[in-house]
Structure formats: C-alpha cells, structure tokens
C-alpha cells in the first residue's frame, strides 16, 4: 500500500508540474501574440497625426476613403474567388462520387401531391383509376318542405316564448291540445 500511495503522490506531483508548465507556456504564447500584434500594427498602421487646418483634414479624409474603397474591392474580389473555388470543389467532389459509383443522397423536400398524381408517378400510363371522390358524389337538390317553411315563418324564438309565457300561453296550449 505504501508503494501505491507513493505512486499516486508521484502521479499527482507530475500532473501539477505539467499543469504549471502548460500555464507558463500559455502565458508566453499570449505575450508573444500581443508583441506580434503590436509589431504588425506599427508596421501597417502609422500613427495618426491630425493636421490643424480644415483643408488638410479634408485631404486626410479623402485619403482614408480611398484606402477603404481599395480594401473593400480587395475583400469583394477575395469573396468572389472563394465562392468560385467552393463551387469548383463541390463539382469535383460530385464527379468523384459519380466515378466511385457512390451517390450522395440529396436532401428530400416535402411535396404536396394528390393521390392521382402519386399513382400516375408510380404506375405511369397504367394508371386509369380516378381518385377524385367529389366527382363520384350524387347531386342532391334541396326541396322546400312544409317544415322548413314553417320554421322560417316562426322567426324569432323569443317572440314565441313570450306568447307562451304566463297563464294565457298555457291556456292556449291546453286548448290546442283538446
């Protein structure tokens, strides 16, 4: 057991030593990146000196605008080149799949299709059954029956209730029943 304790203690010591080394390396890398950034900025971006007169300020602004336009043109050109190369890569990878015989399955989209269209697509010219259910329904004409006319003539149900309310309404109902 003493050997195990010694081995685990040694492992922990080695682990902590490795972590300390890694931390110092990370700090060194961060410092190196910062120095590199400062050097790059000093080289490519000279310190800004603002002139005193209005004309000199306008000239400086025009120069800055010209630089911005040139940088934007370069960025646009690079983007176009990138798009062309990605398109070429996609085409070449598709050709490669075609040559290998393995086809990349394209993403499928949902398509609204009627039952007729689906059967036509599956069976081709053999499909002769029409699945239009509405065409097979019977045409039914509404006939005006006496009940419907009576219901329309009754009108507002509240008037009917008012007439039957009270003793007179019950009397009418009683007399109608005889």
Could you describe the 3D structure shown?
The structure is a single chain. This protein has 178 residues and is an all-alpha fold. Among the domains are: 1-46; 56-102. Helix content is 72%, strand content 0%. It contains six helices and no strands. The mean pLDDT is 79. GO terms for molecular function: actin binding. It comes from Cephalopterus ornatus. Residues 14-102 form a coiled coil.
- Helix/strand structural class: mainly alpha
**Between the first and last Cα atoms, what is the distance in angstroms?**
113 Å
What is the β-strand count? Answer: 0
Unreliable spans: none
Query: What is the succession of H and E elements?
Result: HHHHHH
Annotation field: number of helices = 6
Helix-residue proportion: over 70%
The biggest beta sheet reads:
none
Shape: elongated
Radius of gyration: 45 Å
Strand content: under 5%
Function: Troponin I is the inhibitory subunit of troponin, the thin filament regulatory complex which confers calcium-sensitivity to striated muscle actomyosin ATPase activity.
Coiled coil: 14-102
GO molecular function, one term: actin binding
Family: Belongs to the troponin I family.
